[in-house]
Amino acid sequence: MNRLGAHPILDIPQVKKIPFTFNGKPVEALEGEVISSALQAQGITVFGHHHKDGAPLGLFCSNGQCSQCLVIADGVPVKGCMTLVNPGMEVLSCEGKPVLPEFFDNLDMHPIKTIGTECLVIGGGPAGLAAAAQLGKAGVNTLVVDDKHRLGGKLTLQTHVFFGSREACYAGTRGIDIANMLKNEVEQYESVETWVDSPAIGVFQDGRVGILKQGEYVLVKPETVLVAAGAREKTLPIPGCDLPGVFGAGAFQTLVNRDLVKPAEKIFICGGGNVGLITAYHAIQADIEVAGIVEAQKVCGGYKVHLDKLLRLGVPVYTSHTVLRTGGGEHVESVTIGSLGEDVKAVPGTEKTFEADALLIAVGLSPVNELYLSCKEYGFQVYAAGDAEEISEASAAMFSGRLKGRAIVEYLKGTMPGTDDAELLEILKSKPGAVKPVRVKELPGNVYPVLRCAQEIPCNPCVDVCKKGSITIQNDTLTGIPEFTGEECSGCGQCVLICPGLAIVLVDERYDPGGKRVLITLPFELDEGMVKKGDTVITTGGEGETIGTGIVHDIATRGKREKRQLLVLDVPFEHRLLAAGFRIHEAESGSRKDVVIDEENTIICRCERITKKEILRLIRWGYRDMNQIKAALRTGMGSCGGKTCEELILGLFRLEGVPLREITGFKKRPPFMEVPLKLFAGIK
Fold first, then answer.
1. What is the domain range of residue 475?
2. Same domain assignment for residues 542 and 477
3. Which residues have CB under 8 Å from 273's CB, separation 6+?
4. What is the pLDDT of residues 483-513, one digit of tens each?
């Protein structure tokens, strides 16, 4: 069983087991679990084989945006990542094309009902829930619909502590807890109704929106619409990108942090933005080895504090590198990386291959905005918030939703509750700023913090939590760098416990009257069994450099906050300002044996198995309309409706030097996801 038995942050609940079958063999799921996660937990990673070339198919996005997890459940083709397991369910892999059911006479059809509401909120994630809270507070009749089985969106996957402002967006609190806080706030308002397992599937010219409400098709006629549908993950067109074991980073977080499934033993991550860096840390918390992170740019684009905490643990980060291919038969078995030159092309002879059973793709996000664009086209009073409007951090998404909720209240009621904090929203959306030298203020013979937050990012929990008021922010702005500027420190460790970036260490010079040893207190939120009292560990500096050794003096649970503990190390006095963490493993060098990089046959359209070579041929023949390519090759005609391949095809146009202004994109029409035809006729 590939299930987590323990986790430093998440509780492992006792959940009822549900029997079902996969290809006739008995397996089991946990109550409330989707098919794909249940199969992964059973060690089943290949869900079927493509009818065109027999290629293995497995989980990729776990977000309903692709079709790689397609299975037959009780005779109906479904996406495994969106379908709950029912007791006794018969699940079959898709081997070839699904067989359509026979036509039935005397069908019992029912009229499709239409429901009115003042505001329809599409998406129950951070932006949608924050908006719904504002609407509920103002008494606006609101309907929130979400395609998942519980509210919270990506917050339900985030076990880390959030940045930003404590007052504005719950900074210093874990995403999983923020999800519950927002959900509970929304549910207290009688004017707000929430539908889960209810995706919006189409927008129509008559002012109605089609919703698939838990298997029943209904129409909603809203006065206003807020689209807060989040984002979908971009992918990487490399040989082997379609193998089972290649996951979007969000899919990996879904398996590990939501469903408590361990889908791999050793992973490689492509992408050094916040998503890739955070996911690497989540993997380590789940006792999964991170063989390395590759980033195409010269520096990682994510917050430096996220990068540094991985470097301190010993995770290798390869900048100016990319993934060249994955190897394996029915599943990922290896990952090959290579160095990039100044022209951002792979440098021959720099290839290195690592053993790994998973590759996580974290190369960016795209807004799920097709519903918003359709609403605009058909004249709806429509708003967008969160990632559906602009890709940014979840803290910004919450604040964006709050502001859009107020704007809708103003439109409907003529008044706007609260104040317009658009300036704060821009701060929360801002990219990481300049990195500055760390300045340390010592209190000789006493206790004091060392703050290694050296980059301008929006964050202030350490300032708010300091009982002595001794931590201040440069320039008194949310994005300023925090410093210990006071003359006194109580040694309470609350700043260590709350810092989202794990960037604060408490130095205690009072430990050894002889002045040869000191105690340093580090934040610790990994498996408690990783170290124990009395162990000797290799200490590392702020950016992962080796400092020396330290002895585990204590693992303190006193004052335990948000499931983060305090690890106390006994280190030499001269290391007191240098040691910032400890290493858990050494980097592997990888093998340099020759590998074949077959770029031409890289799969671009996963649903229809269309290769890079086939699409490039049409582009070179002069095709500029993606709908013509669709007609010729079937790109975009699969179950995902072009959601996965569209950006990759645009990338091929750019590769050929074709200006994007010359390209006509896919024509998007409802429904925006697969729907059994019987539901449009009201057949139960």
1. 447-582
2. yes
3. 300, 301, 302, 362, 364
4. 999 899 999 999 999 999 999 999 999 999 8
